[in-house]
Specification:
Blueprint lengths: L5 H15 L13 H15 L8 E2 L8 E2 L17 H22 L8 H14 L1 H5 L2 H7 L3 H6 L6 E4 L2 E4 L1 H15 L6 H8 L7
Antiparallel strand pairs: 1-2, 3-4
Helix pairs in contact: 1-2, 1-9, 2-3, 2-4, 3-4, 4-8
């Protein structure tokens, strides 16, 4: 049984069908890659359940409890008391996802061999965890050794956060990693998703 929530699964599949038909949310020559767009949808689902978060809040589950807004955006650009529109959030989020994609291309030696779902799952991991943590992980070591399935299996290990000074497993991260593991391991490989995409014109689904 799929671990990807039905609402997210439907959104991802609709996006994939749109890509195959030559449409996307970014109708410009500077549109981000398909995998970045899919990763952003993943982030929106797990960071905010698809809701717009325009008022910064303190992420009490995050390391250092940073001031956070939009879909997990932290850093000096997030100012207390400022309201961020959907356009502001896209302006803040997109560069971070593009940076995660750039990092993924740098640290995963076989990036060019991965399908769009695998790439989206790795981009989400880097966006959520940061390049320094991912770059030295067993996930990357296994992927670079040619063991993609082994790398995918590492994802559920990254589910801990700090609550009241204690390291605990967080339900939200457990669900998020179950989704990325399934995308990494199964999507485009079990025949079903490949058949759907090919029927709509194809989408690098190997």
């Amino acid at each position: 049984m799929s671990k990807v929530p039905a609402i997210l699964r439907n959104k991802l599949m609709q996006m994939a069908i749109g890509f195959a038909a030559g449409t996307s949310a970014y109708m410009s020559v500077q549109a981000p890659s398909h995998e970045v767009q899919l990763a952003m949808e993943l982030g929106a689902h797990y960071e905010s359940s698809g809701r717009h978060i325009g008022v910064p809040y303190v992420d009490k589950l995050g390391k250092g409890q940073p001031l956070t807004v939009c879909n997990g955006v932290t850093g000096p650009e997030v100012q207390k008391g400022q309201y961020y529109t959907k356009e502001d959030c896209q302006r803040l989020e997109l560069p971070k996802y593009l940076a995660a994609e750039k990092a993924a291309k740098r640290i995963f030696k076989h990036w060019g061999q991965y399908n769009v779902w695998v790439r989206a799952s790795f981009i989400d991991m880097i966006y959520n965890l940061g390049e320094p943590a991912v770059a030295v992980s067993s996930m990357v070591r296994l992927a670079n050794a040619g063991d993609l399935l082994g790398a995918c299996a590492q994802m559920p290990r990254w589910v801990r956060g700090t609550v009241n000074g204690q390291s605990v497993s967080l339900p939200g991260l457990i669900d998020r990693r179950a989704t990325t593991q399934e995308l990494c391991r199964d999507w485009g490989r079990d025949g079903h998703f490949t058949a759907v995409l090919v029927s709509e014109g194809g989408l690098n689904a190997r």
